[in-house]
Amino acid sequence: MDLELTADQRDVAEAFARVFARDSSAERVRAAEASGFDPALWKALAGMGAVGLTVPAGAGGSGGGFVELALVAEAAGRRLACVPLVEAAVAARLLADAGVADVAAEAAGGERVVVFAARPAVAGVARLVPAGAVADAVLALDGDDLVLAAGAPGQPVRDLGFQAAADRPLRGDGVESRVVASGAEAGELWTRSRDRWRLATAAACAGMAAEALDVAVRYAAQREQFGVPIGSFQALQQPLADAAMAADGAVLVAREAAWRHDNGLDSWPAAAAVAFAHAAESAVRCAELCLHVHGGYGYTLEYDAQLYLRRAKATRLGAGDPDLLWEQIGATAIGKGAP
């Protein structure tokens, strides 16, 4: 296994890091916080081909791999980007895999906001879909059918990581549904996409963890008590060191899962589950420590620490109960199930 980035991959990472630093500043995030969606950032990313990064060139994409998508997602996570990059990229690739060429090309180019629902629908409703309040259409598993449902955006759920999350009905009045696949094919397509969502979201969480830790370290270096920076106190140095190991590990397991995927290894779905579980947990851990380092200031809206904690907690719940996922990972490790 070689996780060393190629020159082209480093260029991708650096280019998108610059874009997010410019177009997803703390001020821009706060401006988009109420809606959870930044149209200008979405337009910029679509223009750079981010949404169609893993879609084959013949289907309107760039033909890149999931390592490249993970690098872009990591940069997006660092800057708390208010766009459904991962959900849209996974949806575009799913549509291409399913042979829905017309919608795949539109989704890959960002002309339509089509997002993937990482949990099966319940009673014909996809629950708490990121960007469900702004998306033109949602791809979700409804029973034995994989459905592309277009309709009016849902009502956003407040205080859920400013991700424009909303419930989306997949059938009924005002909804135009299209069955993309049925039966075993639908289950296979959705499960593969869910695993891809996990590995790309793991990368976003790794970016969140790294940046939340950086925010904490910068504050600890400048805030003084008893005439010295608080970062000189061992009571802060130890937890910061532990969090740094968790954050570095999150980056590594996310990139490893993407590498396994792009190299066609059968182990990539299990690696994606581990990557998501660990990276999401690490993002929450680093964000909580960031609040702790800031003391009472961390709980105020004027400081950015609370933004990272809110996004991290919401993202961790995006695929359901985190403890259940860890149980499934353990069962897989001893040969009793699949995550």
Automatic annotation (TrEMBL):
Instruction: Give the superkingdom in one word.
Output: Bacteria
Q: Does the keyword Oxidoreductase apply?
A: yes
Which keywords does UniProt give here? Answer: FAD, Flavoprotein, Oxidoreductase
InterPro entries according to UniProt: AcylCo_DH-like_C (IPR036250), AcylCo_DH/oxidase_C (IPR009075), AcylCoA_DH/ox_N (IPR013786), AcylCoA_DH/ox_N_sf (IPR037069), AcylCoA_DH/oxidase_NM_dom_sf (IPR009100)
Does the record's keyword annotation contain Oxidoreductase? yes
Q: Where is the Acyl-CoA dehydrogenase/oxidase N-terminal domain?
A: 6-99
Which positions fall inside the Acyl-CoA dehydrogenase/oxidase C-terminal domain? 198-332
Question: Tell me, what is one Gene Ontology molecular-function annotation carried by this entry?
Answer: flavin adenine dinucleotide binding
List, separated by semicolons, the cofactors it needs.
FAD
| Membership in a protein family | Belongs to the acyl-CoA dehydrogenase family.
- Name listed for the protein in its UniProt record: Acyl-CoA dehydrogenase
